[in-house]
Amino acid sequence: MLDEALTSAQLEELLAESQKAASKRISILKPSRKRSIDFDALGHVVYRWQRSPKYLDEEGNPLKIPPRGRPPSVEALFRDIDRLDYFERGLRHLRQLGRVQRTKSGLLQPCNEVTIVQQLRPELLELLVQTINRVVATVLHNTSLKDKNAVRLVERVTAVPDLPEGEIGDFKLFAREQGGALINTMNDWLERRRGDVRARRTGANHVTAGLHVFAFVEKNV
């Protein structure tokens, strides 16, 4: 990518070959449909649970609801997003990822704003491939626009080469707080503008859009 003689077409060809090779490797590790975690469906369920008026109490807090049955229930939430086929597995995955907790009465309540996966799963490897591809695609998009006034996708970085190691802990917490606030705001904006369920299923006139935030710490050599 640092070769000045490399054209956009050549770069796109290299990316396509790289993604094909990575996808082939990942397919070996790809879990069966029965075990695969659908992060989008889980996030959408929890979002509706925390934002939809019929799932909130008078103070605006998410209701404690039963896992199955008529609304309000977790099963009904999966039905609302047209993913009832994923409900039983999704319910297990919500518990597995710590997104819900059970009360003494057997009801469930959301307990985390975000999904934190602490094990390297095949789904995360797929996300890694997508992330690399999207970063390069963003750069190519921004540099290919001829109009200097055209709206470009945000692509920013801030870093210093001399942060004392003793500050790493505080940096992690601060980055988490600031990044979390940004992601929550963006998530609200995106979720309110999602297409109709049936239209999403066909993919007609829809694109995948999002924002990826990450922090990094690396040793100087």
SS-derived structural category: mainly alpha
Average pLDDT, rounded to a whole number, is: 83
**Total strand segments:** 2
- What share of the residues does DSSP label as strand, in percent? under 5%
> From the alpha-carbon coordinates, what is the Rg to the nearest angstrom?
21 Å
- Give the spatial strand order of the biggest sheet: 1-2
Proportion of helical residues? 40-55%
Number of helices: 7
Largest sheet properties: 2 strands, antiparallel
Distance between the termini: 22 Å
| Shape estimate | globular
Q: What low-confidence regions span 5 or more consecutive residues with pLDDT below 50? A: none
Name the helix and strand elements from N-terminus to C-terminus, one letter apiece: HHHHEEHHH
